[in-house]
């Protein structure tokens, strides 16, 4: 794979490192890098579902950056491994090896065909994200185990929130944790494509696919149906 990512300036390179650093502190720490035709799409999932009965929604954050037009790549790396090249602040060195792409990185996110779904206040995203973080902190006991932390986070962030158009509250968490929220006066654009929803802000996009059914389906009276 390519040894480095070349950006038009040091600001774009620093932007990637800021994003990857935030991603490393939330979710699984993996960062998906896809570059083609002068654009780098970088994605991470601060929230990811683990298992059939896990209520935690898998919610992705994505940001696009200008990059060397001749560069093409599609790989997943650990966010903490990215760093600028010494003496060349507009270049980001890649690790010697990539990691096995997790399921979320293999999702076929639509690139076209999105339809308008209205708008959402950035202030509401910030408010509900901060409320959720406080709710998680207050619900956890002293010295909780990893499973307890995941369970509580799943319960808080999976809940539909009326202030967020009924979207799972985790949408606010992803926008907040990845640094997508700037001015409170911004209006986020909402778009839909089948089961996919995208909330777009100037600093990035929040995407998820749902709703997904959890648990087992209702029991049906098969004997009665068979006797007909």
UniProtKB/TrEMBL annotation:
<dbReference type="Pfam" id="PF26035">
    <property type="entry name" value="DUF8010"/>
</dbReference>
<dbReference type="Pfam" id="PF26572">
    <property type="entry name" value="DUF8185"/>
</dbReference>
<feature type="domain" description="DUF8010">
    <location>
        <begin position="2"/>
        <end position="102"/>
    </location>
</feature>
<dbReference type="InterPro" id="IPR058323">
    <property type="entry name" value="DUF8010"/>
</dbReference>
<protein>
    <recommendedName>
        <fullName>Urease accessory protein</fullName>
    </recommendedName>
</protein>
<feature type="domain" description="DUF8185">
    <location>
        <begin position="110"/>
        <end position="211"/>
    </location>
</feature>
<dbReference type="InterPro" id="IPR058498">
    <property type="entry name" value="DUF8185"/>
</dbReference>
């Amino acid at each position: 794979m390519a040894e480095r990512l070349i950006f038009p300036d040091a600001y774009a390179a620093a932007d990637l490192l800021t994003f990857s650093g935030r991603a490393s502190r939330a979710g699984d720490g993996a960062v998906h890098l896809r570059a083609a035709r002068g654009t780098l799409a970088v994605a991470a999932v601060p929230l990811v579902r683990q298992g059939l009965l896990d209520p935690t929604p898998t919610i992705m954050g994505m940001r696009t950056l200008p990059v060397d037009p001749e560069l093409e790549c599609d790989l997943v790396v650990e966010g903490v491994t990215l760093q600028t090249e010494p003496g060349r602040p507009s270049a980001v060195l890649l690790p010697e090896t990539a990691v096995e792409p997790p399921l979320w990185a293999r999702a076929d996110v639509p690139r076209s065909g999105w339809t308008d779904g209205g708008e959402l206040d950035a202030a509401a995203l910030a408010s509900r994200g901060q409320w959720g973080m406080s709710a998680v902190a207050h619900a956890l006991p002293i010295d909780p185990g990893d499973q307890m932390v995941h369970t509580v986070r799943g319960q808080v962030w999976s809940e539909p929130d009326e202030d967020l158009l009924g979207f799972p509250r985790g949408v606010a968490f992803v926008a907040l944790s990845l640094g997508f929220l700037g001015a409170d006066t911004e209006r986020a654009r909402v778009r839909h494509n089948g089961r996919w929803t995208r909330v777009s802000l100037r600093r990035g996009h929040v995407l998820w696919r749902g709703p997904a059914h959890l648990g087992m389906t209702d029991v049906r009276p098969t004997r009665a149906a068979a006797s007909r």
